[in-house]
Design brief:
The complex is a heterodimer.
Chain A lengths: L1 H9 L16 H22 L3 H21 L3 H25 L15 H22 L15 H10 L2 H30 L1 H10 L1
Chain B lengths: L3 H20 L3 H29 L6 H31 L19 H4 L2 H11 L1
Helix pairs in contact in B: 1-2, 2-3
The chains are: A mainly alpha, B mainly alpha.
GO molecular function, one term (chain A): quinone binding
Pfam families (chain A): Oxidored_q3 (PF00499)
Protein name (chain A): NADH-quinone oxidoreductase subunit J
Chain lengths: 206, 129
């Protein structure tokens, strides 16, 4: 039945690239696969390493690999935005957070909580289910990467400022709110720091 | 390119992030795993947008627009999240989310902050104060 469905899909109109085969990967596919393996490996090291700073540095590798994947998918603008925002600012913020919370430099044995085996079971089950569904659904679908790039800066600017102006502006308001919120949270903590002995005394009495 | 490559990679990255969120104990490591999950979703959005922008006559490029919005919201989220983690660290002296059990309903009525590992620090603070 699966075969029949696949044949039906292959003869359906939305598949204009029926000349592709599974056993003849193109160069882009091989590059995508290799970079994807590096990205996935870096992500796995990120969530399993016991050295907190190394986790942040491996996250750089994973996010940079994803930027390369965006480039291979011809989404250039998003690739550079990924490099600028994620690798440039988010990882730096995470490293500052690790430093400010006095994270141990070496191996910390309690990086993983006690429910890691339940978490592993959930993650593996979700991975099996998702990969199965996705492969079964899109086994006869090919992305046409020839022709003009789908995500150059010109195309991005056109669709962003022609069709998505209102969400874009709303997003700037959200960023302002996040900025103010972060400042308020930090200020409140600093105001509490003045009365730290009283707070600690209360907690100790409790 | 076969669409299954980015879709499978995105699914595997999402599940990696899911494992990290569930299994990590440090709050900043949990935030890193959340970033991995968001990036998996971004990869999915970009791949499907590139596919659909070829298949459709007229496209709004909604996948790429949503990816840009997700990246911006992730930046805001990481800022707020780190501010919260730092505030918790200043108040409690730990960023270990397993020890933040004030609202937990469990078998022990007092919660681990009554007899947990946070108590010696509080006692030390009281003694020094």
């Amino acid at each position: 039945m699966n075969l029949a469905a696949a044949v039906h899909l292959a003869s359906a109109p939305p598949v204009p690239h029926a000349q592709h085969g599974f056993l003849s990967p193109t160069g882009v596919e091989i590059a995508f696969l290799l970079v994807g393996l590096v990205t996935l490996g870096a992500a796995l090291v990120t969530v399993t390493t016991r050295q907190l700073v190394h986790a942040a540095l491996w996250l750089v590798v994973a996010l940079g690999g994803l930027a390369v994947e965006y480039l291979l998918l011809t989404a250039e603008f998003i690739a550079w935005v990924q490099v600028l925002i994620y690798v440039g600012s988010v990882v730096v913020l995470l490293l500052f957070g690790l430093m400010l919370t006095k994270a141990p430099i070496g191996r910390s044995p309690d990086a993983d909580s006690g429910n890691r085996w339940a978490a592993l079971a959930v993650a593996v089950a979700a991975a099996v289910a998702l990969v199965w569904v996705v492969v079964d659904a899109f086994r006869t679908t090919w992305i046409d990467l020839d022709g003009p790039a789908a995500g150059t800066t010109e195309v991005t600017g056109t669709f962003l400022f022609r069709h998505w102006v209102l969400p874009f502006e709303a997003l700037s308001v959200l960023l302002l709110a996040a900025l103010v919120g972060a400042i308020v949270l930090s200020r409140k903590a600093r105001a509490d720091a003045d009365t730290t002995p009283a707070v600690h005394g209360k907690e100790g009495a409790r | 390119m076969h669409l299954a490559y980015p879709a499978v990679l995105s699914a595997l990255l999402f599940c990696t992030g899911l494992y990290g969120v569930l299994a990590r104990r440090n709050a900043i490591l949990v935030l890193m795993s959340v970033e991995l999950m968001l990036n998996a979703v971004n990869l999915n959005l970009v791949a499907f947008d590139v596919w659909l922008s070829r298949a459709a006559e007229e496209t709004l490029h909604s996948g790429q627009a949503l990816t840009l919005f997700t990246i911006a919201i992730a930046a805001a989220e990481i800022g707020i999240g780190l501010a919260i983690v730092l505030a918790v660290h200043r108040n409690r002296g730990t960023s270990d989310i397993d020890k933040l059990r004030d609202t937990a309903e469990g078998p022990e009525p007092e919660g681990p902050d009554a007899e947990g590992p946070g108590t010696p620090a509080a006692e030390k603070a009281e003694a020094s104060a």
